[in-house]
Write a structure and sequence with these properties.
Helix content: over 70%
Structural class: mainly alpha
Largest sheet: none
Transmembrane segments: 12-34, 54-79, 91-114, 120-138
Distance between the termini: 48 Å
Number of domains: 1
Keywords: Membrane, Transmembrane, Transmembrane helix
Radius of gyration: 19 Å
Amino acid sequence: MATIRAIASIPLGVVAGMAAMLFLLIPCFLMYPLPSGIDVNDPADAEAFGRHLASLPVSAFALVLVAHAGGAFGGAAFARLVEGEAIWKESLVIGLIFTAMGIVNAISLGMPLWFTVIDLPLYLPAAMLGGFSLDMVLSRQEMPTMKKASA
């Protein structure tokens, strides 16, 4: 059973992290919607999407940074929860997977260089922090509480 949990923790962590990232991107999509007529899946609209990206304020990119780091954090924490053991490997793997997806995202969407330079190094520390944070929460729950002896 432990082997199954170890194997399942990574894909489940990636799915949970992607869901967390999409949830965290909702404010960005609401505040800065795509102009009508742009289809991000249509290569013919790539130029129009690039113009839209160039017109966005720094606050939009800040929201995206938070969402990306939050997705890696949440995915690693979920993977750690599924794994059930206090090991850091799943957090490292989740962070590396999110970094790889971030590279593909930066290239395919034509993200600004300054954003990419800030964004890509955030995934791994966020994932490690997610795994370690859950370890801290779980270790506090498992530790017996000490009661004061009444005199």
